[in-house]
């Protein structure tokens, strides 16, 4: 994974340590930027109230009240829990220009953010996040 210019992760592990901490599928998405197939993730249709944290490091990223139905095949949020929770960087892979979303704490790949698609949300943004990159902590 390429380093992010001007940002140092708070959680730093070697590739070997990440491989011991994450299963192979989690590692491929979180550390190598892979994407889970659409409509296969455990949180795509979830309506449970709670907080979604980074599966790699446990940082709180999104709240369930920021989640919305976008019908894109991945969990969608209109805003992160805190603006400092995620980092954004240009992604020119696969012959397109997108904005990649990473965990600000460990710099793991979460998904992408899209703007101006006409969603009826307060931000007109869609944080399209891989379920495998998240862990839902239900509200008590």
UniProtKB/TrEMBL annotation:
Enzyme Commission (EC) number: 1.8.4.12
One annotated GO molecular function: peptide-methionine (R)-S-oxide reductase activity
Organism: Allosaccharopolyspora coralli
Keyword Oxidoreductase: yes
Cofactor(s) the record lists: Zn(2+)
SUPFAM superfamilies, sorted: Mss4-like (SSF51316)
Pfam families in the record: SelR
Domain of life from the UniProt record: Bacteria
Name of the featured protein: peptide-methionine (R)-S-oxide reductase
Domain MsrB residues, every copy: 15-139
Keyword vocabulary terms for this entry: Metal-binding, Oxidoreductase, Zinc
């Amino acid at each position: 994974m390429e380093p992010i210019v001007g940002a140092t992760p708070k959680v730093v592990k070697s590739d070997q340590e990440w491989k011991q901490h994450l299963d192979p599928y989690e590692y491929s998405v979180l550390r190598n930027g892979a994407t889970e197939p659409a409509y296969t993730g455990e949180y795509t249709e979830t309506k449970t109230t709670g907080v979604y944290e980074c599966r790699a490091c446990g940082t709180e990223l999104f709240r369930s009240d920021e989640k919305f139905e976008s019908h894109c095949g991945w969990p969608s949020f209109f805003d992160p829990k805190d603006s400092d929770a995620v980092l954004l960087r240009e992604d020119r892979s696969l012959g397109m220009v997108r904005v990649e979303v990473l965990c600000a704490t460990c710099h793991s790949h979460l998904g992408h953010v899209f703007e101006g698609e006409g969603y009826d949300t307060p931000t007109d943004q869609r944080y399209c996040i891989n379920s495998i990159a998240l862990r839902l902590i239900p509200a008590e």
